[in-house]
Design goal:
Layout lengths: L1 E5 L5 H14 L5 E7 L9 H18 L4 E4 L7 H7 L4 E3 H12 L3 E5 L5 H10 L6 E6 L14 H15 L4 E4 L8 H8 L3 E3 H14 L31 E2 L15
Parallel strand pairs: 1-2, 1-3, 3-4, 5-6, 5-7, 7-8
Antiparallel strand pairs: 2-9
Length: 261
């Protein structure tokens, strides 16, 4: 089985972290292909950054071709609906996966994310997915996304402090980590705080593998119908490609190596 994970931002070290977490969660024999665009924001911290990333995400999915499922490696599920329009393979967002896993493990859960400006996007998705009533609160640790890549930044302690407050103030029975860059913290924080701490990357891998294994495909009806043929992706129908993508983390090659479609 081949799973494509797209990190919508351009930070290769985060793509490597996501790839490692995905491989740790995947079944033996599953190949993890982790990619990120070359052009775009280095981190996604709000609606504006999300919008900038979507063309690059679509280009990567189109370029990669034959995979069994696609995972959007950003907690905002950046470009999720658009990607479902260009492939019939299962497409799973790590935010959506984390929410659903939490709802099956606890009566009420909280989310601990990065900056306060990211909270509205997560709350919006929670309503879209029909899980707002199960979520006690979306909390901001006020940790910039890129601080998660800096050893000794104190990010883990700030996230842990929010989990402790969520247990007391929100009566949360589980916590979802609200950023792909937190993927390496879940196990330690769960043990430290004595409740399920869900990493969306691992949750998405499990769901994507399961859906692909039982032969499920994304619907081609209604909102996820394929784009009209006269509305191709960048690079199709004579239009230039303006969003090159990086060939990251499939091997130990240079993570910024550009690859041809």
């Amino acid at each position: 089985m081949r799973l494509l994970i797209v990190n919508p931002n351009t930070t290769a070290s985060m793509t490597a972290k996501i790839a490692a977490a995905a491989r740790a969660a995947a079944e033996p024999g599953t190949t993890i292909l982790a990619r990120n665009p070359i052009l775009g924001p280095a981190s996604i911290e709000g609606f504006y950054d999300e919008a900038l990333c979507v063309p690059g995400v679509l280009e990567i999915v189109e370029a990669e071709g034959d995979v069994d499922a696609v995972i959007i490696g950003c907690f905002d599920d950046t470009g999720l609906d658009a990607v479902r329009c260009i492939t019939d393979r299962p497409v799973v967002g790590i935010g959506e996966a984390g929410f659903h896993m939490a709802a099956m493990l606890a009566n009420r859960f909280s989310v601990v994310t990065t900056l306060g400006r990211s909270v509205p996007a997560i709350e919006h998705n929670m309503h879209r997915y029909g899980l707002a009533a199960r979520c006690a609160r979306v909390r901001a640790s006020e940790v910039p996304v890129l601080d998660l890549e800096i050893p000794g930044s104190g990010a883990a302690a700030k996230i842990g402090a929010e989990i402790a407050r969520a247990k007391v103030e929100d009566r949360a029975e589980a916590v979802v980590l609200g950023c792909a860059g937190m993927t390496d913290l879940a196990g330690r924080l769960a043990e430290e705080h004595g409740l399920p701490v869900i990493d969306g990357v691992a949750a998405a891998v499990a769901l994507a593998e399961g859906m692909a294994r039982i032969g499920l495909r994304t619907s081609r009806l209604g909102g996820y119908a394929p784009p009209r043929k006269d509305k191709g992706l960048p690079g199709q129908h004579g239009r230039p490609v303006t969003w090159p993508v990086a060939n990251n983390q499939e091997t130990k090659d240079n993570p910024n190596k550009e690859f041809a479609k």
